[in-house]
Structure formats: structure tokens, C-alpha cells
Amino acid sequence: MKEEVLENVGLNNDSMFLDMTFGAGGHTKSVLDKFPGSKVYCLDRDPVAYQLACDLETEYPARVVPLLGKFSDLPVLLKSHGAKQNYFDAILFDFGCSSMQFDEGGRGFSISKEGPLDMRMDGNRLPQNPTAADVLATAEEHDLYKIFKVYGEEKKAKKIARAVVEARYLFTPLQTTKELADLISCVLVNESRTDKLDRHAHVATKIFQALRIFVNNELNEINYGILLAQRYLRIGGRLITICFHSLEDLIVKRHITGNMTDNSINVLPLQYVDNGLWHDQESIKEFTSSYWQPLHKHVLLPSDYEVETNPRSRSAKLRAAVRVS
Ligand SMILES: C[S@@+](CC[C@H](N)C(=O)[O-])C[C@H]1O[C@@H](n2cnc3c(N)ncnc32)[C@H](O)[C@@H]1O
């Protein structure tokens, strides 16, 4: 959704832009070209993406600042570059995995490419962090169930969690993407699933999504990332987010629009709150207040042309908002 980003990013020729999800640098490059004189700070937790940002720095001297780390590492990284609060004119998040990560079987994200069940966006940069294989080999059955249910919204989460635990005793530990995909195909032998374009989808898709979100602590990172965006954007600066599934989008929406919708409590952020609690006017005001003014009433979706030429964009939802306080 490059065009939509450029239209809503509100930059000019001497702007400071922070790309929180550099990936292969597609969005960064379009900003550098469209706004000559702008400077882009490029963050990614993946060392492969970081190397690409370093290469781009030589292509656009003094205009690219590569940063290696997670959203939650941002304060430390920016401090070492002298960037302070209220520093940026726009911040972009293009959540999820990059095509580079999906397409490289060795990273373990893809069902269709055989590789080790790794799924760490950081790769081996943080070797102590557990891989997807570690999670499948060690988590309690109930925890696996919760991961599959909450992060994958998988209806058959219980059955799959049971099968994963049984497989530990029957076979060697699950090590590869193919072994996991085959196990789930056996468990869900009579299921057939389709994606948003009504095309055949592998029955293990949701489980792969769930594991990836868990291994990378993605939802907590998103939540914290948006809080940091509010800190590092100047007032009047723009926040742009591109989400690929409802769990990501609900977190962004909660930040941008506040915690209450239609006078009722938004179920996602307040799901752990006792409904019997009585809230006074002050706390209700706090729930509903927001630092953001959305630029559009509804999310922006990719054009038919983009979906046709890049089917991975089919679930993308773009939100744009201005920091108002
Ligand atoms: C969808 S891709 C971005 C693609 C990019 N906009 C482009 O045009 O090439 C998402 C990128 O964000 C990175 N990422 C995801 N979560 C992150 C986090 N919490 N901290 C830093 N980078 C993250 C991933 O490693 C991945 O490279």
C-alpha cells in the first residue's frame, strides 16, 4: 500500500521519518525518493533487514539511519543517535513478517517451504530466545491450547494441542515445518479451509500464525510500539499502521479510538476487567481519551489491482492518525 502511505504520511522535503518495520525497505525507499531531503530512521529486529538498511545508507548518504532491534529497544537505540521525544514527523508500522522471511525456508515461517521450526524474526541474534520447535517441545498442553486459540483463533485448538503433546511421546520432537504441517493435516483430516480470496488454504495456517506471534511476542511489541510512537512523534505528526490480521488491528484501533465504543467497553482491551465493576466518570473519561485523531472513518484497503498483483496484500488494513496530545 505504498501509494496510500505516501498520500497519508504528511511529509515534506526536510521531514524526519521513522520506519519501524524496514523489511526490504520498500516504504523507506518510496519516502526517500518522493521527499528528497527527508531523513529516515530504519528499524528492524531482523539482521538481514538491518544489513539491507546499511546498504541503503550508502546509496542515500546522510539520509538513512539503520537501527537493529525490536520496537521495545527503540528508546535505547534512539538515545545513541541523539533523537529525543517529539522528534519525528511521521512513523510507519507495516506489521507481520516480510516476504524475505516467508520465502526463506530456513527461517521456518512458511508451511510450503521445508525448514527448521525456528520462526524467530531476530534469527540467531538472540540465541537464548526459544524457537517454535522449543515451544512445541516444552509448553504445557493447556498453554499450547491457549497459544493456538488466542493467537491463531483456531477452532480445533484443543485437539491440535493434544496431538502435539502426544507426538512428543510417539515420535521424535517436531523439528521441521513439514513435520508440523503433516501432523496438523492428520489431526484435521476432514477439514478444508479457504482464505479471504476463497482460495484453498492449508489447515495448519492458523497454527503457524499463532506460533509466530508467540515466539516473537508480537502483540506486546505492537502495543508498546504504539505507545513509543506517541512519545517520539511531534504533536501534529502522523502515525501510519498496516495490519494483516484482526489481532494486530484491534490493538491499533484501541489506541487510536480509545477504549470505549458505542458506550460499551471494548472487549479486547478490557477482557480481564470484571464486568461488575462500577466505573466513575473520571475513569470512563480515561478509557475513552486518545492521543490520536484518525484521518479516516474506516480503514483503507488495498486496491483490486494491488491484491491481484500481490495476493499477500489481500488482508492489509491501513490506519492513519494524527498525534493530537
Ligand atoms: C511486513 S515486513 C515490512 C516490509 C517493509 N515495509 C517493506 O516495504 O519491505 C515487517 C518487518 O517488520 C519487522 N518487525 C516485526 N516486528 C518487529 C518488532 N517488534 N521490532 C522490530 N521489527 C519488527 C520484521 O522483521 C519484518 O522485517
TrEMBL record:
Pfam families: Methyltransf_5. HAMAP family: 16SrRNA_methyltr_H. It comes from the Eukaryota. Belongs to the methyltransferase superfamily. RsmH family. NCBIfam families: 16S rRNA (cytosine(1402)-N(4))-methyltransferase RsmH. The lineage of its organism: Eukaryota, Metazoa, Ecdysozoa, Arthropoda, Hexapoda. InterPro entries: RsmH, SAM-dep_MeTrfase_MraW_recog, SAM-dependent_MTases_sf. One of its GO terms (biological process) is rRNA base methylation. Keywords: Methyltransferase, S-adenosyl-L-methionine, Transferase. This is Methyltransferase-like protein 15 homolog. It comes from Laodelphax striatellus. GO terms for molecular function: rRNA (cytosine-N4-)-methyltransferase activity.
